[in-house]
């Protein structure tokens, strides 16, 4: 099954960026369509392939994501979603093809160019990856590393006042200001993921990657985290790529859905044009 309703636009202005049919409160404050339709491309993958040793994970993967788009990347366990995200962020090299992120060749960026590119993106991963013995606030302060010439080992005690204030404000936006001084290893899974979101958004990233942001949470905490995450990023017009095994989340929070299966990008369509059955086909 290769579903390509609205797949691979021939130009940015061809992108069909209708909001998803199922409008949630989080997805309401969308930028005007005419604004989006002339937006630049924030991520472009051209014929990307990835192998680990002799094992091919995916090949010939191409897509373009416009600024402000929210894209769900779906596929069965082991389909290569996390690997594709890591390639798109320039964290691991591609085996063939190229990825452009914010106009820069992410797949070839090294040294200072790579660091400055990473300073413009944010990541929320499935295991929140907070530093356990540091406070929630210090963990969020760490989200500002790379955006300032300050020491790389800042704690909230020695970070500049402006950085501490930004971190506290980010915690406030995720409803965690009251927990600023609590050690990360004394937070619940849902609280930790909120702190991880605060850390990802504190530097106002232009592109946010979220790798199964609610995978470790119970259903209600997962709903709350997704709702919060998308309320924050929609308001900022941030470009978002998130992976999920939750078909409802993919259709509800994605403007567009990309699906990996059998080492190929088998699905590239607007969420509004898809049904849950279309997505289930990727798991057969
Ligand atoms: N560093 C690595 N070295 C070798 N193989 C790897 C490496 N990272 C991932 N893989 C393999 O690549 C394949 C794709 O993994 P990946 O984590 O990208 O899949 P996924 O779609 O995100 O899966 P899941 O839904 O289970 O998180 C898997 O078979 C995995 O074992």
From TrEMBL:
InterPro entries: AAA+_ATPase, ABC_transporter-like_ATP-bd, ABC_transporter-like_CS, ABC_transpr_LolD-like, P-loop_NTPase. The keyword Magnesium does not apply. Residues 1-37 are annotated as: Disordered. Residues 43-283 form the ABC transporter domain. Residues 1-13 have a biased composition (Polar residues). It is an enzyme of class 3 (hydrolase). Keywords: ATP-binding, Hydrolase, Nucleotide-binding. One of its GO terms (cellular component) is plasma membrane. Its EC number is 3.6.3.27. The keyword Amino-acid biosynthesis does not apply. It comes from the Bacteria. One of its GO terms (molecular function) is ATP binding. This is Phosphate-import ATP-binding protein PhnC. It comes from Tritonibacter horizontis.
